[in-house]
From TrEMBL:
Superkingdom of this protein's organism: Eukaryota
Listed InterPro entries: Enod93
Keyword Transmembrane helix assigned: yes
Source organism phylogeny: Eukaryota, Viridiplantae, Streptophyta, Embryophyta, Tracheophyta
Keywords: Membrane, Transmembrane, Transmembrane helix
Transmembrane annotation, as ranges: 21-39, 51-70
One matching Pfam family: ENOD93
Entry protein name: Early nodulin-93-like
Keyword Metal-binding on entry: no
Length: 90
């Protein structure tokens, strides 16, 4: 039973990593476009958003998206499997 639980946990964490990576990539693209546009077109952006600031904004959003989606995916899988195990035990 322990090996089944370990395999299930490994699959759930892998699913979380895959979903988080997809979300981080999408968030990076969707954040990069307006960030770079603002840094090029608006006077405030030209004055305040150098390359380092742009990279910081984009990577912060991508990192947050990764951890939020990965956490939600793992928790949803664990909840779903807990209900399955509870029904099987009754």
């Amino acid at each position: 039973m322990a090996s089944y639980n370990q395999e299930l946990a490994k699959k759930q964490s892998h699913d979380g990593v895959v979903a988080g990576t997809k979300a981080a990539g999408l968030a990076a693209i969707l954040t990069a476009i307006p960030t770079v546009a603002i840094a090029r077109k608006l006077p405030w952006g030209r004055a305040n958003l150098n390359y380092t600031a742009q990279a910081l904004v984009i990577s912060t959003v991508a990192g947050a998206a990764y951890f939020i989606v990965a956490d939600k995916t793992v928790l949803a899988s664990a909840r779903r499997n807990a209900f399955k195990n509870n029904e099987a035990g009754n």
